[in-house]
Amino acid sequence: MQTLYRILLSFGLSAGGAMCAHSQDEWPRFLGSKYDSTAAAPMERIESIDWAKPPIYQWSAKVGPGYGLGSVAGGRYYHFDATDDSENERLTARDVENGNTIWSVTSPMTYRDMFGYEEGSRSTPTIHGESIFTFGVDGRLSCRDIGDGKLVWSVDTGEKYGVIQNFFGVGSSPLIVDDMVIVMVGGSPVADQNIAPMQLNRVSPNGSAIVAFDQSDGSERWRTGEDLASYSSPRTVTIGDKPFVIAFARGGLMMIDPADGTVHWRFDHRADMLESVNAMMPVVDGDEVFISECYQVGSALLKINADSFEPVWIDPPGDRRRQAMRSHWATPILADGFLYGCSGRNSPDSDLRCIDWKTGGVQWSDPRRIRSSITRVGDHLIVLEERGRIEILRINPDKLDIVATWDLTQPDGDRPALTFPCWAAPIVVGDRVIVRGDENVVCLTFPTSQTAASR
């Protein structure tokens, strides 16, 4: 079966029979192939969507504890969660056409959450060639064969690098650069290992904020950065013709040479609050990078080069009313010179807003206090509210432009309700949109002007 899948994959087919020959039918890592949570479907397909009609239900699947959504390649959806007893992490391959399970594998998990949150994955699997990489909530980095889920290698980064448990476990997704897989680790020296969790103010870093591993065997290639663990995921950026890795670490933004881990520069950006986290992925436009957090310091836009940075604008620390955006875990969407995203820490103080990329000026904000995550499809945004309702917005910097509402909060026929917490941004592959809430992943098809929308 493994050999068959590799042959089919080379022709854009899955063993389950689904066609997936083009990049627009794949979502191989967190926020998609370009790190921007944007559908890559051809324009003619996007323009055929009839947003006035409700989506068409395709399939759903029960999932275990966790908050992350999966990835898609070769006609398969790969979901990373925990078993119901939270004793094992689990990776499951499903046929994206019908949701049928193709294979499912587990491995022991030791994580126990200190705040009562679910004890499953917060991250997204990363697919590269014939391998799929997962980074578990307890810090286990694993490489598996994408054909059958067979384990190739794994590294317990928590044990290897002396990671003192972070407040909410590990939430960063793996990054592939050349023949390396790069993750946020954030370990501590031997002398700190007896410090109890919840006392991270007493914990010191040991130079392993970010670690690169060899894709083939999991051996360390380099480690860098004097920071504890971060919830943001690293990404690449190209300056001139040279690729770099940028990482929104626990203490700020770092520019890293992927060849050897050299840190070219660092911009400090973190709230004073001990329990604060940096979680959104940096948004890049040319040589400018946007970062944001919700606890105190807000946002910043930097103009960068290989050796330094220059602030374009920075929010006033501690002044929420004057801050452009306060991103928590959801990464905003850049569209035509404006950022659209959720600003705020919790629902009572959160809103959806649009800001000017160049100035940070707020264009508009939604007076309803609701947390949400966003995915872009052409000139529309799919806004998934954390309690399961979806609003379709036309991209418009002048006003909140709602064109449709998909209320998935109640069951409808075979489709289960989408319930709190819905924290992962939707995945769009081809004409499908995949969303998740508590206990369920739901796959829908976009209605078009040529199809009758039936549920």
Whole-Å distance between the termini? 34 Å
The number of helices is 3
- Secondary-structure-based class equals mainly beta
- Unreliable residue stretches: 10-22
Oligomer: single chain
CATH superfamily: YVTN repeat-like/Quinoprotein amine dehydrogenase
CATH architecture: 7 Propeller
CATH topology: Methylamine Dehydrogenase, Chain H
How many strand elements?
32
Shape: globular
Query: What is the typical, i.e. mean, pLDDT?
Result: 93
Work out the count of structural domains. 1
Protein name: Outer membrane biogenesis protein BamB
Domain Pyrrolo-quinoline quinone repeat: 88-365
InterPro entries: PQQ_rpt_dom (IPR002372), Quinoprotein_ADH-like_sf (IPR011047), WD40/YVTN_repeat-like_dom_sf (IPR015943)
